[in-house]
């Protein structure tokens, strides 16, 4: 498939003491120019590692990442650097990514100064333009990160990410540390920036409501694999994978009765020893044993042999698309 970003069978492996951990395990996804793909999943499911793996900032051991059809994973160092400048990443804690001793105007145009030969005057004008683009004032350029609120610092981090006119921004939990009103302002800013500049987002978040607001499509990640990917509306109205259903069922809503919340059962399995077959089956509300008279589990996967009590083990073999 063509498009802006195509990830095919990506595996990211952290060498470990006992055995290597495939934190991302055969992930394939696709992002069209000017669109947003939301990426959700519990803590430790591999979302950040996938974001970093796309940029080559985590140890990729298999698979390919293509930007506009060009292979980033196997490119020469120089080609890779040029390609990667078209993808920028923004993190949860903007304070950590901004140099506290550098005025924000200078920090914003630092990537431009490295990649482009621009005069000081051009860089100054550009920092003012970018600050205004994210809803701050050009005169803020001489102030330091500590002089801004958390939401303003996140705007500065976004302005810095926009400096090289990227075609894709990977936003990793960028609203998680902000209170809800500031969160809403940042989400609206991302939407406006997408309309104005055509930038695409891979938007990583725990928060399904936030992801739904922003995303055209949503991918759900569990233990290093994408178990389901769908249009945002369809994912919420007709979740196909039980993991997606329970994630949606666990989101609190205004006016919801307390006992209507359905928290996920059990703990996230140890990623070094994931359950065999369906990696979710140990926590699945319809598994691990399903009545054989149902004929199939919630995702219509065929079941194994029925036991004496009429139940059968779930043998859902996950593929990266969530269907076998
Ligand atoms: N540098 C690292 N070295 C070894 N293991 C790591 C490293 N970074 C992450 N991991 C492990 O990889 C798995 C995936 O972690 P990752 O941070 O990508 O998940 P996540 O879904 O982004 O979680 P969160 O939402 O909490 O940030 C986890 O088991 C984590 O402990």
Automatic annotation (TrEMBL):
Protein name: ABC transporter ATP-binding protein
NCBIfam families in the cross-refs: oligo_HPY
Source species of the chain: Actinomadura montaniterrae
Gene3D superfamilies: P-loop containing nucleotide triphosphate hydrolases
A Pfam cross-reference name: oligo_HPY
Family from the record: Belongs to the ABC transporter superfamily.
PROSITE patterns attached to this UniProt entry: ABC_TRANSPORTER_1, ABC_TRANSPORTER_2
Top-level taxon in the UniProt lineage: Bacteria
Domain ABC transporter: 5-248
A GO term, aspect molecular function: ATP binding
């Amino acid at each position: 498939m063509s498009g802006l970003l195509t990830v095919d069978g990506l595996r990211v492996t952290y060498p470990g003491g006992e055995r290597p951990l495939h934190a991302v395990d055969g992930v394939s996804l696709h992002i069209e120019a000017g669109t947003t793909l939301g990426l959700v999943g519990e803590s430790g499911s591999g979302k950040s590692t996938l974001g970093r793996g796309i940029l080559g900032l985590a140890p990729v051991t298999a698979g390919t990442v293509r930007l506009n059809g060009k292979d980033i994973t196997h490119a020469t160092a120089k080609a890779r650097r040029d390609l990667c400048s078209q993808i920028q990443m923004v993190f949860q804690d903007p304070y950590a990514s901004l140099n506290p001793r550098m005025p924000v105007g200078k920090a914003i145009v630092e990537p431009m100064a490295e990649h482009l030969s621009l005069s000081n005057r051009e860089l100054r004008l550009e920092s003012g333009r970018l600050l205004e683009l994210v809803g701050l004032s050009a005169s803020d350029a001489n102030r330091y990160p500590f002089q801004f609120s958390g939401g303003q610092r996140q705007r500065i981090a976004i302005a810095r990410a926009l400096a090289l006119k990227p075609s894709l921004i990977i936003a990793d939990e960028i609203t998680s540390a902000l209170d809800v009103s500031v969160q809403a302002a940042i989400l609206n800013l991302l939407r406006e920036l997408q309309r104005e500049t055509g930038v695409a987002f891979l938007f990583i978040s725990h928060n399904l409501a936030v992801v739904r607001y922003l995303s055209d499509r949503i991918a759900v990640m569990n233990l290093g694999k994408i178990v389901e990917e769908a249009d945002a509306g369809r994912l919420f109205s007709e979740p196909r994978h039980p993991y997606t259903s329970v994630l949606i069922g666990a989101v609190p809503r205004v006016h919801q009765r307390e006992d209507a919340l359905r928290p996920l059962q059990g703990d996230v399995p140890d990623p070094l020893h994931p359950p065999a077959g369906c990696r979710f089956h140990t926590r699945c509300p319809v598994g691990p044993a399903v009545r054989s008279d149902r004929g199939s589990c919630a995702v219509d996967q065929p079941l194994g042999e029925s036991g004496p009590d009429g139940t059968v083990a779930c043998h859902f073999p996950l593929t990266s698309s969530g269907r076998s």
